[in-house]
Amino acid sequence: MVGLIEKLEREHTLSKEEYIALIKSRTPELSELLFEKARAVREHYYGKDVYIRGLIEFTNYCKNDCYYCGIRCKNRNAERYRLTKEQIMDCCKTGYEIGFRTFVLQGGEDPYFTNERMLDIIHSIKRQYPDCALTLSVGEKSREEYQSYFDAGADRYLLRHETANNEHYRLLHPDSLSPENRKRCLHDLKEIGFQTGCGFMVGSPYQTEEHLAEDMLFIKDLKPQMVGIGPFIPQHDTPFRDFPQGSLELTLFMLGLLRLTLPNVLLPSTTALGTIHPKGRELGILAGANVVMPNLSPKDVRSKYLLYDNKICTGDEAAECKNCLQMRVRSIGYDIAVSRGDCKKE
Ligand code: SAM
Predict the structure, then answer these.
(1) What's the first-to-final CA gap in the chain, in angstroms?
(2) 338 has pLDDT over 90
(3) Would you say the pTM of this structure is higher than 0.90?
(4) Residue 227: C-alpha distances to residues 69, 222, 310 (Å)
(5) Does the beta carbon of 145 lie inside 6 Å of ligand 1?
(6) Contact at 8 Å (CB) between 167 and 137?
(7) Given ligand 1 and candidates 305, 307, 309, which is best to mutate, with the most ligand atoms within 8 Å of its CB?
(8) Is the distance from the beta carbon of residue 307 to the nearest atom of ligand 1 less than 6 Å?
(9) Whose CA is nearest to atom 4 of ligand 1?
(10) CA-based nearest residue to 203, from 158, 160, 163, 259
(11) C-alpha to C-alpha distance for 4 and 138, rounded to whole angstroms
């Protein structure tokens, strides 16, 4: 297995069977070796810098019914909210003042935010903060809509593919959502010129090592600039409430594999990772991640964007969140950078 890690480090890819073998036969020693190599690669491109993204969860209304997600439309217990444009601009102002140079607008697929409203928000943010990158994460849209967001100045787009395996995708979603359309969106986003992010949950219901290997090959082929992964965490009002959560240890292993597969990729150490372990985000960075995404949403709506149970940081102010992460990142010898934090060239 050590030979496979060395091969991945050298060639940045493995066959499906090789990825499966590595994932299946991982041990603590093998993981440590993987993380050492992953850290060396991330430091080659990014030094000790950790990039921060100010996450603005601007609506938890969603027309979709993904079986794993706490804000799915059929969850009647979700307390719904949407931010006004003024509230969104206030989040950016606070964020800018405390050092954020990337804003991420994330939300459910909320029909209230028509193309016209989205373009107005994008224009306003880019006019006010021309030195900042704007990332959108608002789900599946037509190519024309994506193009209009890009033309209005949006720089990046996050859309996790969720799973590269079509049968597995159908087990996680209702019939109204298709793996073909999800992948179409990602290809459109890349072709349009967005810095694009895909990703998946680790330990989602019915996931096998084979699916994870297919995820790695899909990602290798798509060549996204960002990959967001985190453990699946059950939410009590979803059909998947009784499934076990994804493990810390497998999530970290997948982060290490991703770093060696796409050496210069932007790889967040996610809030979900911080939710399943008190030091989850620090361990994620030590496994090869180089981005953290603290929350900039107003305090009064934080506790309503509940994709999964026990989400952390729902009671903190933006500045508290940033300071806490700064301290955590420094405690492991890294530092937060004040910059847009673009993907470095290979
Ligand atoms: N609606 C947009 C979309 O579909 O891309 C963005 C918001 S969506 C809630 C963001 C991500 O949350 C999803 O891509 C999914 O991977 C993750 N997520 C949802 N439910 C989760 C859960 N129970 N555990 C872990 N991650 C979850």
Answers:
(1) 26
(2) no
(3) yes
(4) 19, 11, 23
(5) no
(6) no
(7) 307
(8) yes
(9) 139
(10) 163
(11) 37
Q: What gap in Å lies between CA 95 and CA 166, rounded to an integer?
A: 39
Q: 55-66, pLDDT tens digit by residue?
A: 999 999 999 999
Which residue's alpha carbon is at the smallest distance from atom 3 of ligand 1? 139
CA of 158 from ligand 1 middle (Å) equals 11
Which ligand 1 atom is at minimum distance from the Cα of 137? 6
Structure tokens at 131: 């030195």
Tallying the residues shown for the chain, one arrives at: 346
Q: Residue 139: CB within 6 Å of ligand 1? A: yes
**159 close to ligand 1 (CB < 6 Angstrom):** yes
Helix (H, G, I), strand (E, B) or coil at 12: coil
Tokens 């895909």, located at residue: 198
Burial of 79 (C-beta count, 10 Å sphere; 0-12/13-18/19+): exposed
70 Cα: distance to centroid of ligand 1 (angstroms): 9
Nearest one of 17, 15, 16, 6 to 41, comparing CA atoms = 6
Strand ranges (E), 184-280: 195-202, 226-231
| pLDDT score of 92 more than 90 | yes
pLDDT tens digits for range 264-299:
999 999 999 999 999 999 999 999 999 999 999 998
Residue type, 201: M
Q: Which residues pair with 82 in a beta bridge?
A: 59
